[in-house]
TrEMBL record:
The species this protein was found in: Cryptosporangium minutisporangium
Keywords: ATP-binding, Cell membrane, Kinase, Membrane, Nucleotide-binding, Phosphoprotein, Transferase, Transmembrane, Transmembrane helix, Two-component regulatory system
Broad class of the protein's primary localization: membrane
GO molecular function, one term: kinase activity
PANTHER family: SENSOR HISTIDINE KINASE DCUS, TWO-COMPONENT HISTIDINE KINASE
Domain Histidine kinase, residue spans: 320-513
Gene3D superfamilies: Histidine kinase-like ATPase, C-terminal domain (3.30.565.10), PAS domain (3.30.450.20)
Cell compartments where the protein resides: Cell membrane
Pfam family, one: HATPase_c
Protein name: histidine kinase
Catalytic activity: ATP + protein L-histidine = ADP + protein N-phospho-L-histidine
Enzyme nomenclature, EC number: 2.7.13.3
Enzyme category, top tier: transferase
Membrane topology (UniProt): Multi-pass membrane protein
Length: 517
């Protein structure tokens, strides 16, 4: 059999509650018995006092006290009163305490056992005293005639009679105690039954161990974890979620202002949400009366993905250039085979000079290698889509003025958005890119020949999920400009959107402190 320490928490609480209830009921029953005993004794004293007063006020008693042999009259009278009232003794005595009556006739003429001083002075009183009949509750009353105390009357009820009266009440008190114990035990059992369901009948050590395990897992997992109730208020949050959402210490019990869309409790699978400076992948599933939300940080991954897309685009442009170079090479070889050497030379050097001028212009203007690669790749991509991507001749980006990853995110997404806008508009399709330094700020500007944005669209453009595209490929739409806005905000910059007949996005970033070479 399991030791009490190995019992389940519900069983231990049940045993403790039953013990407490038993002690309380026993104490209450003891108190009730004591109170009943005191009340019975008080009733006996009151009854004895009333009978003694009545006997003392009887004229026959007053008259008998003046006779030479009072006992001949008082003994039968007192015994008659005793039998009629059911008391144990009615004693009439002199002021010196000499008995004139007694249930035991042999005690007549002897001194009364008890206190009589107060009665001699004219005051009635009650007391508990042990006399010839044993312990008794008695009342002593003076007999007053002509203004003087002529004798005393004592009426008593022995304690054994009082105890018999009290014993008659004990079954009722015991029944009340048992009923109280049964009711309390029944209530305790019902509470215990509910507790067993809620604790799965686990013991304190199991619960403590589970709490330690769950708490360790909660704070050790690499994902952010939130438990929300049905009203969207936070009930539980781990350290990673606090870090990702920059939550205050008192967030428990409050709704999330960072991700208000989670309050509906609906299921979400790998949704991308942007906070002030992070890209988060959010999953939400209903659980019980609320929902469980997990958060994964994709900020760095999104930046690396942008760089990878740029490199991939550059590789695609190189493959396209290689394909075009192969075509041009075949053309040159064919011209030479036809004996048209001069035309072959002009064709080859003309194409080479055009490509070289474009590369030279980008390299001269932009000294950041990552941004150079991005622009060359975007030029090739735009060309394949029928859009002319032009770099402002006065563009200038010194190395180290900004984080290369931020430049890739901002310029790459703005060019992609501009190319899409230009493709959707009638020709000529053109995108212009400018960059320069202005008062310790790096200014990046991308303009397109699209239809532009009205005032309402400008306000929505940098919200996640907003897009002007109407195709059915919704995955990934509306994230580019949101990432731009997030990156600019994180770096303490600002964005202006203007344009008439085409959108012009102007980004201003504080110049990053450069380490002297």
């Amino acid at each position: 059999m399991l030791r009490p320490r190995d019992w389940s928490l519900a069983r231990q609480l049940l045993a403790l509650q039953i013990a407490v209830v038993t002690v309380v009921v026993a104490a209450g029953l003891g108190g009730a018995i004591a109170q009943a005993e005191h009340a019975t004794e008080e009733r006996a004293a009151t009854r004895a006092l009333a009978i003694a007063r009545a006997v003392a006020a009887t004229p026959d008693v007053r008259t008998a006290l003046a006779l030479p042999a009072p006992s001949t009259v008082l003994q039968p009278h007192a015994e008659g009163v005793r039998r009629a009232t059911g008391t144990d003794f009615v004693v009439v005595m002199s002021t010196d305490g000499i008995r004139y009556s007694h249930p035991d006739a042999t005690q007549i003429g002897k001194k009364f056992l008890g206190h009589i001083d107060d009665a001699v002075r004219g005051d009635a009183f009650t007391e508990t005293y042990t006399g010839t009949l044993g312990p008794s509750v008695r009342a002593v009353v003076p007999v007053i005639a002509d203004g003087a105390v002529r004798g005393l009357v004592a009426v008593g009820i022995v304690r054994s009679a009082i105890d018999r009266s009290l014993q008659g009440q004990l079954p009722t008190l015991a029944l009340a105690g048992v009923l109280a114990l049964l009711l309390a035990a029944g209530g305790t059992w019902l509470v215990n039954r509910r507790l067993r369901r809620q604790t799965h009948d686990l013991g304190p050590r199991e619960l403590s161990r589970m709490y330690a395990y769950y708490d360790a897992v909660l704070h050790a997992v690499g994902e952010g974890l939130l438990l929300l109730d049905r009203d969207g208020r936070v009930q539980l949050v781990n350290d990673e979620a606090r870090r990702l959402l920059a939550l205050p210490t008192d967030v428990v019990g409050r709704r999330l202002d960072t991700l208000p869309m989670l309050g509906d409790g609906g299921p979400r699978v790998d949704e991308i949400h942007l906070t002030g400076d992070r890209v988060l992948v959010v999953n939400q599933r209903p659980a019980g009366d609320g929902s469980v939300v997990t958060l994964r940080d994709h900020t760095d991954l999104q930046a690396l993905t942008g760089e990878l897309d740029s490199v991939r685009g550059f590789a695609e442009s190189l493959r396209s250039a290689a394909h075009e170079a192969s075509n041009r090479l075949h053309t040159v070889v064919s011209l030479i085979g036809l004996g048209r050497v001069t035309e072959a030379l002009e064709f080859a050097t003309g194409e080479l000079a055009l490509s070289q001028r474009l590369a030279d212009r980008v390299v001269e203007s932009v000294e950041e290698p990552v941004l150079v690669a991005l622009l060359l790749g975007k030029v090739a991509q735009a060309s394949e889509r029928g859009v002319e991507l032009v770099l402002d001749p006065d563009a200038q980006v010194p190395p180290g003025v900004a984080d290369p990853r931020d430049l890739v995110t901002i310029v790459g997404n703005l060019i992609d958005n501009a190319v899409d806008a230009a493709v959707a508009a009638p020709p000529p399709r053109r995108v212009e890119v400018g960059a320069w330094l202005d008062d310790e700020e790096l200014v990046l500007q991308v303009a397109d020949s699209g239809t532009g944005l009205d005032a309402a669209q400008v306000e929505q453009a940098f919200a996640r999920g907003w897009s002007t595209k109407t195709d059915e490929r919704l995955i990934g739409r509306g994230l580019g400009l949101a990432l731009v806005g997030q990156t600019v905000h994180r770096r303490g910059g600002r964005i202006d959107v203007t344009g008439d007949g085409g959108a012009v996005f102007t980004v201003r970033l504080p110049v990053r402190a450069r380490v002297p070479s």
